[in-house]
Amino acid sequence: MSAAKRSSLTPDSRRSAKAPPCGSCPVKTHNVCQPLEADRQQELYESRQSWSKGQFLYRAGDPLGPIFKIIIGIIAVSKRLPDGRRQVLDFFFPGEICGYLETDGHYTFEGEAITPVTACVFTRARFKAFTAAHDDLTEIVRATLAWKLESVSHHTAVLGQLSAVERLAAFLRWLDIRHGNHGDKPHTLPLPMTRDDIADYLGVRMETVSRAFSELRRHKIIELGETCVRVLDPAGLAAFADPEAASPRKRG
Amino acid sequence: MSAAKRSSLTPDSRRSAKAPPCGSCPVKTHNVCQPLEADRQQELYESRQSWSKGQFLYRAGDPLGPIFKIIIGIIAVSKRLPDGRRQVLDFFFPGEICGYLETDGHYTFEGEAITPVTACVFTRARFKAFTAAHDDLTEIVRATLAWKLESVSHHTAVLGQLSAVERLAAFLRWLDIRHGNHGDKPHTLPLPMTRDDIADYLGVRMETVSRAFSELRRHKIIELGETCVRVLDPAGLAAFADPEAASPRKRG
DNA sequence: CGTTGGGTTGAGCTTGTTCAACCACCGTGG
DNA sequence: CCACGGTGGTTGAACAAGCTCAACCCAACG
Q1: pTM here?
Q2: B32, B43, B40: which is closest to B139 by C-alpha?
Q3: Which residues, 6 or more positions from A180, have their beta carbon under 8 angstroms from its beta carbon?
Q4: Protein-strand D interface by C-beta, 7 A
Q5: Tens digits of per-residue pLDDT, B26-76?
């Protein structure tokens, strides 16, 4: 932070070398980039970076580094307990910002690439100054935080109240909706995460996830492919995920 | 919104009748009021209201109404599943803002007074305009959302990974810290919520909460009073809440 | 003085865990 | 080319955590 120190928002030397690839960016209309015209895009852009599956973009407790906007791939954000148990808090998809939350000068959670990932990298101070200086971006940051808060709260309710099969159904439905599927027609859904990732997201063991998959399959609600699920009965899936008074069963 | 409609932030007739009681407000230094000088306090203030134990300030799905800042009492914010199960997402204490989150023109969650409550009531549109118009308040809103996001994420990890006793220990420790207790000396902690409220917060049944209390008592970590707990061994409590490699046990 | 609401405890049952075997797939090296 | 080990996933059997149902206690209150 000595030679690179700047008080303004002007581009630094690294970046000004070549023009930002924002024009062809597949997520230039997402999150903070959404309202940006070409010149503000250029001003915000710094660099891109790639990670392979299994690598960490940042670890909980690491001294604060950059903020990331995912261009390609999926990131699992998780919290690890002192004894090694892991809770996956959220899966982040292209267009989303991660690595934002901080505690006392350190990253609060962990960000792990569960597929090959390419992300836009923002120096934290620059990102904060830039978003604070533009009212439209300030509002997007606020809206993103509110939306994430609602979404994590929903997840909390899933973990607190649903049985294993219900949790899996809720997860698949959530994935489905994230992919823009809302209808009642059978369709196929990519499923890039391992059983272990899903287990740590749903707060159950891997074997339980596997059994829950089998149960949904037995009910002819899904079919399993290599790295995807075929949703045969979206309405049935929704019924499992949002249990009406039908089944008075609770978590075991 | 017809007679009361105003485009500016000037006080409305209801409010201008008497001077705001902000001067003697016990939480005037909390959250959005924290940086306000007397005149901005007066400009933001609208009215106060009280609720008795068990009343709802707002229900999930209700058309959007005001935002509340708690002056006295505690509010349980929860989500209810279609079949009646309830997940308490958070307990809100004096100084905190609730009823903020909205979905599609409706309250996202439920706000229930679990003690007698007095709160400052803000018209949503006025509150949003006011906070958006002042940079210091915009920042406080952002920081509050980020803090809540982190806090709910922590709760998610508790529900996903901890056993019943560990969950209760984590809850008591959280309560303790909220009350400003950080030391290792025995001390007494108010416990105004019922076993049922705690159960729905921790994602277990009331009976399990009761057994967990008994277990902590058996370990001489706490003593139980009428509407309070005496924490005999804060370090022991912390050990239960943040399990080291010691106990390899997981949730059942 | 009986009733009501919150809390505790016990007994049996269910769910999900643990441990283990087993399978399919894939890349590597003999 | 096939044997090999590694990884990710499924399934079974025994076990344990937490749930359900029920009895019981106690304090507040009309």
Answers
A1: 0.91
A2: B32
A3: none
A4: A 194-196, 206-207, 209-211, 213-214, 224, 249-252; B 163-165, 203-205, 207-208, 249, 251-252
A5: 999 999 999 999 899 999 999 999 999 999 999 999 999 999 999 999 999
